[in-house]
Amino acid sequence: MSVRVTDSQHVALRCSTSGVAFGPVFEDYDSAEAFVDWMRGQGHDDVRVFRDTDLVRFKDEWESRRDPDLSDTAMFGAGSA
User: How far is CA 21 from CA 37, 69, 71, in A?
Assistant: First the structure.
């Protein structure tokens, strides 16, 4: 699984096996990576198993927990940025 830029301003999750994009759109690469890292921290190692609607709900939860004054690295660990 990987994260790829879908245009100059948005990022989507993409399955590296099938090449299919899935889930919500993110503002930037770092945010998408931090979300995937957060999901792994929640015990979800493979986010491809979730429906898009579930990933949107998880993203909403993740965003509500983020502190805008902290970097992703400070908030979610060194592997996030």
Answer: 18, 30, 26
